[in-house]
């Protein structure tokens, strides 16, 4: 297999109001749309995108569909690239969560979280990695773009770079920003770039 570039683009700004947002389906704000448009310009200037995959959630999907159609690119809308299912905690204010479940953030950062009514971290990790493996087996071309969420990107960075989730979490991809990895089957990936959104 020839080497290819995998770009992990995080959705732009949303009106989260200090809440934990997982599967809650929020649209992008105007700022979020500008962030993704600016990142798309930057990503496209580095190399033409040859295939796109996206989370089905609106904050990712609408952008991916628009650019897949305009560029006549193969698009995969993949439920396994959705954010972690936080169950009963989804949509809860972060301040209240910290009060009622002290240390939940450290559990998440350490890859140990199992929110009530949601999925465990290991279930989340397993579905994300299975989704990537399936997409990589069918995607074509030298530059593949995944539009997804912060948690998904951290799982993928940890796996592909061969590091712990807690270490990968330190390489934060901000909303609207992206990470690029150089991929060659049978070899470890390496990080090409980690960029913040250009728009503000």
From TrEMBL:
GO terms for molecular function: hydrolase activity. Keywords: Hydrolase. Its EC number is 3.1.3.-. It holds the Pfam family His_Phos_1. This is Histidine phosphatase family protein.
């Amino acid at each position: 297999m020839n080497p290819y570039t995998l770009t992990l683009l995080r959705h732009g700004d949303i009106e989260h109001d200090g809440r934990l947002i997982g599967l809650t389906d929020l649209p992008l704000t105007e700022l979020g749309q500008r962030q993704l448009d600016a990142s798309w310009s930057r990503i496209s200037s580095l190399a033409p995108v040859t295939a796109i995959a996206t989370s089905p959630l609106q904050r990712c999907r609408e952008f991916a569909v628009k650019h897949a159609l305009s560029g006549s690119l193969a698009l995969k809308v993949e439920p396994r690239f959705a954010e972690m299912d936080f169950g009963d905690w989804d949509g809860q204010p972060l301040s209240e969560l910290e009060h009622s479940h002290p240390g939940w953030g450290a559990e998440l950062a350490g890859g140990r979280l199992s929110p009530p009514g949601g999925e465990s971290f290991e279930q989340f990790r397993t579905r994300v990695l299975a989704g990537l493996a399936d997409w990589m087996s069918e995607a074509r071309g030298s530059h593949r773009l995944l539009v997804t969420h912060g948690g998904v990107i951290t799982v993928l960075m940890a796996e592909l770079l061969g590091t712990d989730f807690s270490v990968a979490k330190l390489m934060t991809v901000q909303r609207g920003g992206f990470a690029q990895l150089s991929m060659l089957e049978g070899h470890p990936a390496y990080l090409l770039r980690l960029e913040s959104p250009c728009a503000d």
